[in-house]
Amino acid sequence: MVLVELLMVVGLIGLMTGVAMLGFGAMWGNTRFKSRAETLVNTFQMAYEAALQSDRRYAVILDQLNNVYILRQFETLDFQTLPDEEAIITVGRFDDEFQFDYVLYDDLEDTRDRGETFTEARFYAGRAGWQFGGKVVLRDRDGRPWSIVIHRLGKPVQLIEGDAEILLPQTRDRVPF
Questions:
Q1: What is the DSSP string of 54-65?
Q2: Mean pLDDT of all residues in the chain?
C-alpha cells in the first residue's frame, strides 16, 4: 500500500512539473519575442534620435527577401537608392519565432498590396522627423500579431500587442482649424 501511494505522489509531482515546464517554455518564448521586438523598436528610436542630433539621415530597412532589418546612415537625398558605401549601423534577423508580416504607412500604402513584388519597406528619419509614419506588423511563433507604431511627428516608437490602429492624415474638411 505504501509503495502504491509513493508511486502516485511521484506521478503527481511529475505531472505538475510537466505542466509547469510547458508554462515556463511558453513564457520564455514570449519573453524572447518581446526582447527581440524591443530591439527593433530601439533601432527605430536610435535612427530618430541620431537624425535629430546630426545633419545625417537614417533609414530603417525591413528586408523581407533576406529576412533582416538594417539601420543605415547616409548623406544622399536620393531615397530610392542608398550607395553601398554608406554606413550600416546595425543588422538584425527575422526567423520563425520573430516574423516580419507587413507594413502599413500612414499614407495608406500597404505592402500587402504589392504582392510578390514586395521585397523591402523603408522608414527614413531626418532632422525634421520621419518621412512617413506607419506600423510594422510582426508575428510571434504562435502567429499572434504585434505592431510597432512609428508616429511621423516624433512621438516615441511603440510596441503594441495585436494589429494596432494608426493615426492617419486628415483631409482639410475634417480639420476644424
A1: SS-EEEEEEETT
A2: 83
